[in-house]
Write a structure and sequence with these properties.
This protein is an alpha/beta fold and 304 residues long. The chain is built from 11 helices and 9 strands.
Length: 304
């Protein structure tokens, strides 16, 4: 075990201890200010964020884009401190904090008996979704998660993710475990909005063709599992409206390359539509377009 990892773990646990002393509203307040500090003072990935926003919203002014960026940093700050606060989560608190707009969509998908892929993005508080789905519906749910390089911190984060019942599937064992879970009729949650290697299929995202992970579509078409897109939209009072939509796939039979590309295009379009409605709740700091050159200019027209 590296000394650096031990020190990181101590710092993580100490910070989490302090956050857990606060009421949830206090943790959210502090998270918002942390986001503002990182954006305005530390400027961590600020250039990447604004570059991504210029690509996505070429019609908006720099002032409008900066406001979206600031809100995105606040969102990440809140989500991070909420994750640290998870050990204090209770079923009752989750029921009050998260509302599902169309719960029948998930119930009907689950009743088909072929498992369900829960598709989401780094949007709102994606970490809370697994807990909320398990508490509200009682369906067995597994979350696909990347293993952090610091295994001590990773174990602490995974304990929080599994706090009220969900299971965590490490990315490195994902293929076998995801197929097992779906064939057992369980739910598998996947955050599917990050950059993919160049060799992956390209689909349109905010007007640009970008390499995109095909995993959700491959799993869905191979097993016959429906994909339900779920996005936890943060409300002004700190609660969440979890909005659901099944990704249409009835006309796609079998995991052919053509069907995989088409289903991927459909779920990416749904993700983009949600981000357009609530742009300050997405993770713009990620280098989503790193394989695609950035256009030289963007419009200075006022935001619509």
């Amino acid at each position: 075990m590296k000394l650096r990892h031990i020190l990181e773990y101590i710092a993580f646990q100490f910070t989490a201890f302090l956050v857990e002393l606060l009421p949830l509203s206090g943790a959210q307040w502090l998270g918002r200010r942390l986001g503002r500090f990182v954006f305005g003072v530390l400027c961590y990935r600020r250039d990447v964020t604004l570059s991504n926003l210029r690509r996505a919203f070429r019609e908006k002014t720099d002032l409008a884009l900066e406001e979206i960026a600031r809100g995105a940093y606040e969102n990440i700050g809140i989500s991070l401190l909420e994750l640290l606060w998870f050990p204090r989560l209770t079923r009752e608190r989750v029921l009050k904090a998260v509302r599902f707009d169309k719960p029948e969509i998930l119930t009907k998908a689950y009743e088909r008996g072929k498992g369900v892929l829960i598709l989401t993005a780094h949007f709102g508080n994606w970490e809370l979704l697994g807990q909320a789905i398990y508490v509200h519906f009682g369906f067995p749910i597994n979350g696909l998660a990347k293993t952090q390089s610091n295994r001590l911190v990773n174990r602490s984060i995974d304990r929080r993710r599994a706090r009220l019942g969900p299971k965590v599937i490490p990315m490195e064992t994902s293929l076998r475990e995801v197929l097992r879970a779906l064939r057992n009729g369980e739910l598998v949650a996947i955050v599917a909005d990050q950059a993919a290697p160049k060799e992956n299929v390209s689909v349109e995202f905010f007007g640009t063709m970008v390499p995109t992970h095909q995993g959700p579509s491959v799993f869905s078409l191979k097993v016959g599992s429906p994909i339900v897109a779920v996005f936890a939209v943060r409300a002004a009072d700190g609660t969440y409206d979890a909005r659901m939509m099944e990704v249409p796939s009835e006309d796609l039979t079998g995991p052919s390359e053509e069907n995989i590309v088409e289903l991927t295009r459909r779920h990416v379009k749904i993700t983009e539509d949600f981000i357009r409605k609530f742009p300050d709740q997405w993770l713009w700091m990620h280098k989503r377009w790193k394989h695609v050159p950035l256009p030289d200019t963007h419009s200075e027209a006022p935001a619509p």
